Amino acid sequence: MTSNGDAPTGSGERNKQLREFYEAAYAKGADVAFSNWSATEADAVIASSIDWSEKRVLDVGCGVGRLSRLLQDAGADSVVGIDYAEEAIQQAKAQNEDVSIAFHCVDVFDFSPDAPFDAVVTLGTMEHMDDPERFLSHISGYLSPTGRIVVTCPHFLNIRGFIWMALSRLFEVPMSLSDLHFIHPWDMARWASGVGMKVASLSSVDESRGSGDRLIEDFEKRLPNALEDVGFDTGNVDCFMSYLREVVTFADTDDRLSFHGATALYVLEREVAA
Q1: Taking a C-beta distance cutoff of 8 angstroms, is the pair 191, 126 a contact?
Q2: Would you say residue 176 lies in a domain?
């Protein structure tokens, strides 16, 4: 197990640049820096995504250890949390002194466990990786023969996603400077197949940010910044937001548009030979 103060050696160049961002963000406090993530909303879905009882679990990108603790409470036999942000790991250790979770400051590509894991869970990390396919392939190598991967990433098969995809594909507008990739279900299926796994289940998480007032708030915050990042005029943002409010009002009263959570949760399992 390695832990040092130098920049991670395994992640790509753009991902390395995010380390300072996360160090500063965690220094502000996770509740302040990452307030958009509906943690309590996702807890029940994650806790029920697989049977965690008696599992040896690796939490990749564990942050301050909230999920690691949740999984231990869900019955995991042992939990290891890793993150390359020193500030996050310090907070994780301080906030979880009463439980036996092992937290380590180490880049995922430099991590050397002493035994395989029954499950690897990683929330909101793949979209920030230089090469998410390489990342998935790497963490699959930490699994036991029957191990599973539970992963979340932003979900784009919804109103929120269609807007961001149009901006991205037509005008190369990023959702944020830290979100390097738009990951879709067909991407995940292809990458999983490449490491002998399959998508066993896919569910929608973070529903409150994928619709209603929180969707509006998210766009009001992100859209001007995203347009400014690529040098676009923001003069028509108010006009667009007026339109979006009309769309959201309709969508929230039409039950045909039910799969609109802002986050997708995937469970990957090994392919079984016929």
Answers
A1: no
A2: yes
CA–CA separation, 157 vs 142, rounded Å? 30
Q: Tell me how far apart the alpha carbons of residues 218 and 83 are, in angstroms, rounded to a whole number.
A: 26
Can you tell me the distance from the alpha carbon of 35 to that of 64, in angstroms, rounded to the nearest whole number? 14
Q: Which long-range contacts (CB under 8 A, 24 or more apart) does 27-33 make?
A: 27/87, 30/63, 30/64, 30/66, 30/88, 30/91
Question: Can you tell me the distance from the alpha carbon of 168 to that of 162, in angstroms, rounded to the nearest whole number?
Answer: 10
> What are the φ/ψ torsions at residue 226 (nearest 5 degrees)?
-65, -40
pLDDT along the chain (274 residues), means of 10: 34 68 78 52 81 96 92 95 94 91 96 96 92 96 97 88 91 84 94 97 81 87 92 94 88 59 86 74
Evaluate whether residue 77 is within a structural domain. yes
Q: Is the Cα dihedral 20, 26, 30, 33 positive or negative? A: negative
Q: Are 108 and 82 in contact (CB under 8 A)?
A: yes
**Cα dist from 82 to 109, 155, 212, whole Å:** 11, 24, 34
- 90, 27 Cβ separation under 8 angstroms: no
pTM: 0.84
Whether 114 maps to a domain, the answer reads yes
Residue at 4 is within a domain: no
Nearest-angstrom CA–CA distance, 112 and 97: 24
Report the CATH number at residue 263: 3.40.50.150
